[in-house]
Amino acid sequence: MTFRRDLIALLTAEPRSVSSLARDLGLKRGDVEDALRHAIRSARAAGHRVEILPARCRACGFTFDEHKLTKPGKCPACRGTRVYEPQILIRSK
Ligand SMILES: [Zn+2]
Questions:
Q1: What is the whole-number distance in angstroms between the Cα of residue 64 and the centre of ligand 1?
Q2: Residue 54 Cα, ligand 1 centroid: separation in angstroms?
Q3: What does the pLDDT look like over 9-32, one tens digit per residue?
Q4: Counting beta carbons within 10 angstroms of the beta carbon of residue 57, is it exposed (0 to 12), middle (13 to 18) or buried (19 or more)?
Q5: 39 C-alpha to center of ligand 1: Å?
Q6: Cα separations (Å) of 11 from 4, 5, 21, 64?
Q7: CA of 78 to the centre of ligand 1 (A)
């Protein structure tokens, strides 16, 4: 599937968020998220290092679980809605 290769190529160039990938690829965020989970798994299986910079609350600095790839709606600690989106980077070996 070439689309998944494109995704991996984008992620090795610089850290990207799901919404910026969706914009560049012209896809829905949900579709990108699904493809991304597969891409991360196959990249790891191929021996690449995948770095996930987890989502973080701008107000209080609360850091979300790195398994969450999309932007959370709200911070559970302070209820703030301004949250940095997670960024994903693949370091090819
Ligand atoms: Zn917060």
A1: 10
A2: 14
A3: 999 999 999 999 999 999 999 999
A4: buried
A5: 30
A6: 11, 10, 9, 21
A7: 4
Cα 59 to Cα 1, 63, 77, 81: the distances in Å are 40, 11, 10, 9
Strands 83-84 and 56-57: antiparallel
**Predicted model pTM:** 0.87
How far is C-alpha 81 from the geometric centre of its chain's CA atoms?
A: 18
Q: CATH for 2-91?
A: 1.10.10
Q: Where are the domains of the chain?
A: 2-91
- List, for residues 26-74, the tens digit of each pLDDT value: 999 999 999 999 999 999 999 999 999 999 999 999 999 999 999 999 9
